[in-house]
Amino acid sequence: MLRKIALASLCFLALTHSQQVGKEVTETHPRLPFQKCTRSGCTNVSNGQVVLDANWRWLHVTDGFTNCYTGNSWNTSVCSSGTQCAQRCALEGANYQKTYGITTSGNALTIKFLTKDSQTNVGGRVYLMDSDTRYHMFQLLNQEFTFDVDVSKIPCGINGALYFIQMDADGGMSKHSGNKAGAKYGTGYCDSQCPRDMKFISGEGNAQGWTPSPSDPNAGTGTYGACCAEMDIWEANSMSSAYTPHPCRTPNDGGYYRCTGQECNQPRYEGVCDPDGCDYNPFRQGVRDFYGPGKTIDTNKKITVVTQFITDNNSSSGTLVEIRRVWVQDGRVIQNPPTNFPGLMEPYDSLTNQFCDDQKRIFEDNPSFQRNGGMAAMGRSLAKGHVLALSIWNDHTANMLWLDSSYPVDADPNKPGIARGECPTTGGKPKDTEQNHPDAQVIFSNIRYGDIGTTYTAG
Questions:
Q1: pLDDT at 4
Q2: What's residue 18's pLDDT?
C-alpha cells in the first residue's frame, strides 16, 4: 500500500535521523509492558518501553544549537555530504508528552495526531523495546500477535498503524560506524516502500541529491532509500482497516538494505521490495457492513485484534502458508468475513498465496507480491525477527484514499477492488486533516504474543 511517506513533524525541531547524540534533553523512554503467552499463561516481558523514531527529533550541530536540517532542507553550511552530516550533527532526547503527544498508562500507549507546544508536531512513530538500547525482536512463525485498539477518534485521511519491520535490533549501530545513537534514539527505520525521506541511512546523512517536497514543508527525498520487509498488522481509522504482508528481495531475506535508483522502486514495482503487498480489507473484499461505526466490528468501541501466522508444519521452522485474522469485541470472538464477490472469487477469509493470486487477477493489481516471493518470502523474513512500530500519520502522496475511499479516483468504484471504504475521494488532504481533526489520536493497549490460541479469550 501507499504509505509512510513524508511524515510531517516539527519545523524548528528538525525532522531527521541523527547519528551523534546531543546533551540538552535526557532521553527517557515511556514504559509500556507487554506479554509473552504460552499454554501455561502469559507473563510480562521485562523492561518493556517505547522509543521515538529519530526522524522526529531535533537535529543540531554537535557544538551548539544551529539546526542541521530546517523545514524541508539540509543546512548546507553545516554539512553537504553523508559523512559530514553524521559527524557534525547530533540527535537530541525527546520530551514525549509535551512535544509529541505520546503517553503511556499501564499497558496502554496513546499517540496524538497533533500536538501544539512552542511548535506544532504532526503524527508520530515509536518502536517497542525490551531494554534501553535494543528493540524487542518478535519471532512470529507459528505464533499469534494480539492487541487492543481504540480508533474512535481517527477520521478519514488519518492512519493509526501497527506493523512489523525487519529492522536491526540495535538500530544499525553495530553495522554502521557512523551511527553513535542507535536504538536508544530510534534509528534504523526501513520499510517496503524503501523510503527516501529518511535523513540518515546506514549511518550516513541522506543529504546527497536531497530534494525538498513540493507538498510537505517538513519533508524531502535524498538519493538513497531504506528497504526491508514489512508486515502490516493494522492500518486503520474508524472507517476502514487492512492487514498486509510486503516481502522483499534484499539480502538477509528482506533485511535492512540501502537502495539507490531503480532498487528503490523508482519506477514503482521495479525495486527490491513489494510496495503494494497483498491486503485484506473487508470493505475492499466486498463486505460493506463489517467494520466501522455501529457495524459488526463497531469502531466506536475498543477492539481486540488477533493475527495468526500459520506454517505448513505447525512449527516455527515451517513455511508460512496463511495469515489469519480473528476479532474480539464485547466478549464475542468474531471470525474474519469471507470475500463477497459471488461468481468471481472464492469466499476466502484469510491471506494465502491462492487468495493473493486470485485477488491480484480479479482486481487487476500488479503482482509484485508474487514476484517478491509471496508468503514463503514473508515467512523467511519473519523468521529473522521483526521490530514492532506503532504510529499515527497522514498522507501527502495519496490522501490515504488507498485505505478508506475509492482508489484510483478515476476508476469505476463498482469495479471489484476499487472501493476500500466510505470516505469521500475529495477528502484526506493533509491540510484538512490537520485543521479539522486536531484531537485525533490512537490508543494501543494490552499487547501480547505467543502460541496460537493463548493470547485472547471470549467473555
A1: 39
A2: 44
Main-chain dihedrals φ then ψ at residue 444, nearest 5 degrees: -105, 140
Angstrom CA distances, 289 to 158, 283, 292, 423, stand at 21, 8, 8, 14
Query: How far, in Å, CA of 128 to CA of 33, rounded?
Result: 10
190, HSE (Cβ side, Cα atoms, 13 Å): 34
C-alpha grid cell, residue 354: 491462492
CATH number of the domain enclosing 35? 2.70.100.10
What mean pLDDT comes out for the span 122-129?
Answer: 97
Q: Is 236 part of any domain?
A: yes
**8 Å CB contact between 305 and 297:** no
Q: What is the per-residue pLDDT across 355-394, written as a single tens digit (0 to 9) for each? A: 999 999 999 999 999 999 999 999 999 999 999 999 999 9
* Length of the chain as a residue count: 459
Give how many domains the chain has, as a whole number: 1
H or E stretch covering 241: strand 241-246
Question: Which among 283, 301, 296 has a CA at the least distance from the CA of 404?
Answer: 283
Neighbours of 426 (CB within 10 A): 11
Task: Find all residues with CB under 8 Å of 241, minimum gap 6, and list them.
Answer: 151, 234, 235, 281, 282, 291
Residue type at position 297: I
Mean pLDDT of 341-357: 97
**Partners of 150 in beta bridges:** 443
Q: Which amino acid is at 91?
A: L
In a domain, 323, yes or no: yes
Task: Name the residue range of residue 89's domain.
Answer: 20-451
pLDDT tens per residue across span 384-420: 999 999 999 999 999 999 999 999 999 999 999 999 9
Considering Cα of 421, then 324, then 112, then 458, what sign does the dihedral take?
A: positive
**Cis amide leading into 408 (omega within 30):** yes
350 residue type, one letter? S
- Opening angle at CA 443, ends 109 and 452, nearest 5: 85
Concatenate the DSSP letters of all residues of 184-196 into one string: GGT----BTT--S
Helix (H) or strand (E) holding 363: helix 353-363
Average pLDDT, stretch 234-253? 97
Which grid cell is 296? Answer: 459488526
Cis before 267 (ω within 30):
yes
* 243 lies in some domain: yes
- The catalytic residues are 230, 235
Residue 452, exposed/middle/buried by CB under 10 A (0-12, 13-18, 19+)?
middle
Both ends of the chain: CA-CA distance in Å? 35
pLDDT in tens, 285-334: 999 999 999 999 999 999 999 999 999 999 999 999 999 999 999 999 99
- How far, in Å, CA of 121 to CA of 199, rounded? 18
Helices and strands in the chain: count of H runs, count of E runs: 8, 30
Domain assignment of residue 457, yes or no: no
